[in-house]
Amino acid sequence: MTRLSSTFLADGRELMYFDDAGTAPRDPASLEDHRALPPRAEPGEVRFDALSRDWVAVAAHRQSRTHLPPADQCPICPTTPENPSEIPAPDYDVVVFENRFPSLGPATGKLPEAAGHSGWGHSAPAYGRCEVVSFTPQHTGSFAELSEQRARTVIEAWAQRTDALSALPGIKQVFPFENRGAEIGVTLHHPHGQIYAYPYITPRAEVLASAAAAHFERSGGTETLAASILGAERNDGSRMVLEAEHFSAYVPFAARWPLEIHLVPHRHVPDLAALNGSERDELAAVYLELLKRLDRLYPTPTPYISAWYQAPLEPSLRASGQLHLQLTSPRRAADKLKFLAGSEAAMGAFINDTTPEAVAERLRTVASPALKDTLPEGARA
Ligand SMILES: [Zn+2]
To answer: Which of 65, 113, 193, 232 is most buried by its number of CB atoms within 10 A?
Structure first.
């Protein structure tokens, strides 16, 4: 079992060490933050956009956040005498802590119902929580280079945080994600991800959740939309990337991005916390494999956004919701990125210059040879 030890940083932020299964108990000294930190800022605000009926977080204090610091000042490397970092311990496996420059929180609470807003000028405190997940004490490298055991520990951390954040007052959606690559705005090189706990359902999650709820209702509560789509993709086969015992991955029929992979569990589960032990074990292997394949497509690492869609916490959307991963990259050639311009950025209307079938074919070609021995028959490319 992964070992969890919780503590609080000097300014009151929560920090949790998730140590790999089988490691020795943590020295209590590694739980103490000896820095003098200024008090935490009050939450920013969320403003209601009456045109689109979306909430927008306004967080001006984030302008002063750390931006690509040199390695010897990295805030998520383990603490040394020269660099008293955010992580008090001299070593760790995986660590999760509250972001010092959050766009949401630290206060939590219930937002006024958006449905009640008809006009201009509504705002509320930016309730919620933003956490940082450091995947490794090593400053360089990437998630794809983690051992399977370490990836499993990260999954344990995601699941535990999903469970804990879902229980906070007013939280409507928990979103674990990773931005990888300076090309897409990463502000720290150290391999890490984030978890946002929103006090509202995000616009994209709302669209997906209502499509999922409509399908579930039409089927009389017998089939999720995700299961229906996965079944169709498996029958067709031309866009399948990987099929394992508990998870399958494919390039979606109507992919928006030059590189886009959806990874779906075969069992109907709302979130990462609902995955059982064997599903989590397999996820570690399968997720690492997908990330490695992305990096084998070109001579240099591929920037990506890894986004976990979990069922929103609204009771009416819970039964129809299905956990899945959307792994996307704007990379369309070795030296070209797709920019979101007029049609995409203004209208949300995507134009994809690659065909999903050709992308899937390329992603099958770069499968790990070793996979053939470690994953079930179906996963072999
Ligand atoms: Zn670092």
So the answer is: 193
pLDDT (tens digit, 9 = 90+) per residue, 96-155? 999 998 999 999 999 887 656 667 888 999 999 999 999 999 999 999 999 999 999 999
Ligand 1 centroid to residue 136 C-alpha, Å: 9
- 67 has catalytic annotation: no
Q: What is the pTM of this model?
A: 0.94
pLDDT at 66 (0 to 100): 67
Ligand 1: centre distance to CA 252 (Å): 35
Rounded CA separation 146/178 (Å): 14
| pLDDT given at position 63 | 59
130 is known to lie in a ligand binding site: no
User: Of 189, 192, 262, 324, which one is the catalytic site residue?
Assistant: 192
In contact, 132 and 76? CB cutoff 8 Å: yes
The contacts of residue 309 (CB under 8 Å, 6+ apart) are 205, 208, 323, 324, 325, 326
State the CATH class of domain 3-200.
Answer: alpha beta
Query: Ligand 1 center to residue 73 CA distance, Å?
Result: 8
CA Rg, the chain, in Å?
21
CA dihedral for 85, 86, 90, 95, sign (positive or negative): negative
Spell out the SS3 assignment of 238-266. CCEEEECCCEEEECCCCCCCCEEEEEEEC
What's the rounded Cα separation, in Å, for the pair 168 and 299?
Answer: 44
> Residue 360 C-alpha to ligand 1 middle, in angstroms?
34
CATH superfamily of 204-379: HIT-like (3.30.428.10)
**Which pLDDT tens digit goes with each residue over 67-85?**
677 878 999 999 999 999 9
**Range from 94-108, 119-133, 157-171, 358-372 carrying the lowest mean pLDDT:** 358-372
Domains 3-200 and 204-379 share a fold: yes
Q: What is the DSSP letter of 342?
A: I
Residue 74 marked as a ligand binder: yes
Whole-angstrom Cα distance, residue 77 to residue 192? 11
End-to-end CA distance of the chain: 31
In the chain, what are the domain boundaries?
A: 3-200, 204-379
In the DSSP assignment, the letter for residue 268 is: -
Residue that wins the pLDDT comparison between 59 and 197? 197
What's the CA gap between 282 and 278, in Å, rounded? 6
